[in-house]
Amino acid sequence: MVALAAALWPRGRDTAADNRPEARVRAGVSEQQRAAADLAACPRPAAGAVGSGPLAGLTVECLADGGSVDLAAALAGKPALLNLWAYWCGPCAQELPYLQQFAQRAGNAITVLTVHSDPDEAKAISRLNGLNVRLPGVLDADARVRSAVGAPAVLPISVLLRADGSVARVEVRAFTGVDDIANTVGQELGVAA
Length: 193
Fold this sequence. Notes:
This is TlpA family protein disulfide reductase. By secondary structure, this protein is an alpha/beta fold. The chain contains nine helices and seven strands.
């Protein structure tokens, strides 16, 4: 019995690697699922862009293609609205279509980026697809974005970033419509939409 137990006991297995968010999540997302969702590409850093502010050095995964995004560098030089949400959050599901409409209305004046704050990437992509939301989005399985900006552990949260990467405001509530978003962004970031 002891010999059998010793033979079956796992050895040399890197359990820390198996518990990484990338290892847990990526296995459940197919390229067909990404293609069906038709999400906008994540912002990419301009040549020579260096990010600053609380998100500096933070790398997350793009929901559209699974690639890595240096968040602060990708957002550098333009105001941004980061919406922290999760597939299981009811108020988030109500708010996401308003964010889509706001992004269309604002055009290139501001970057609107969804930040899925749960490790289940497949459910995030499915939820966005079901809501017909095509905004660029990233996976933040370990809530590093929330921690970096000092936001509480609730959802939804919108983080308004200035062009220099500093936080203008952490909005801890669901927006009630496109005008609500436009008024808040206009007041905090000076962006008219």
